[in-house]
From TrEMBL:
SUPFAM superfamilies: CBS-domain pair
Family matches, as PANTHER family: CBS DOMAIN-CONTAINING PROTEIN (PTHR43080:SF2), CBS DOMAIN-CONTAINING PROTEIN CBSX3, MITOCHONDRIAL (PTHR43080)
Pfam families in alphabetical order: CBS (PF00571)
Keywords: CBS domain
Superkingdom assignment: Bacteria
Classification via InterPro entries: CBS_dom (IPR000644), CBS_dom_sf (IPR046342), CBSX3_CBS_dom (IPR044725), Diverse_CBS-Domain (IPR051257)
Domain CBS residues, every copy: 10-66, 75-131
Protein name from the UniProt record: CBS domain-containing protein
UniProt source species: Flavobacterium anhuiense
PROSITE patterns xrefs: CBS
């Protein structure tokens, strides 16, 4: 299964914010959209990603104010991305190795979606269910 197949099933919604917004503003959007991370884009260019983990570690634990800290100050600017043609195994390996939970999907340099670790796990479970069903039907013949 490929990233493109995951996005066809889940949709290609991309939520993003500008880097000059406050962390508080970013958290409001994340709460409204019920997402754990949000892309940071300026002029349609991916600049970074901000996650709940960034907030916890870089604001809460350092006793900073989310209303006075800007997104660009705490966002992760080194963003790992995938392509539509990448397969699930490669995504899972990248996420595990880099300890990340969200991967923006790029096509021709443009963000066309985001996949999360839960998207990948769900897809792998579905593949395994299909394999088990196929094997069960083969055995019962």
């Amino acid at each position: 299964m490929t990233v493109d197949q995951i996005l066809k099933a889940k949709g290609r919604n991309v939520y993003s914010i500008f880097s000059n917004l406050t962390v508080y503003d970013a958290l409001k959007v994340m709460g409204e959209k019920n997402i754990g991370a949000i892309l940071v884009m300026d002029d349609n260019v991916l600049k970074g990603i901000l996650s709940e983990r960034d907030y916890a570690r870089k604001i809460v634990l350092k006793d900073k104010s989310s209303k006075e800290t800007f997104v660009h100050e705490i966002m992760e600017s080194h963003v790992f991305t995938v392509k539509l043609s990448d397969n699930l195994e490669d995504c899972m390996e990248l996420m595990s190795e880099k300890r990340i939970r969200h991967l923006p999907v790029l096509e021709d340099g443009n963000v066309v979606g985001v996949i999360s670790i839960s998207d990948v796990v769900k897809a792998i479970i579905e593949i395994q269910k299909d394999t088990i069903n196929h094997l069960n039907s083969y055995i019962s013949q």
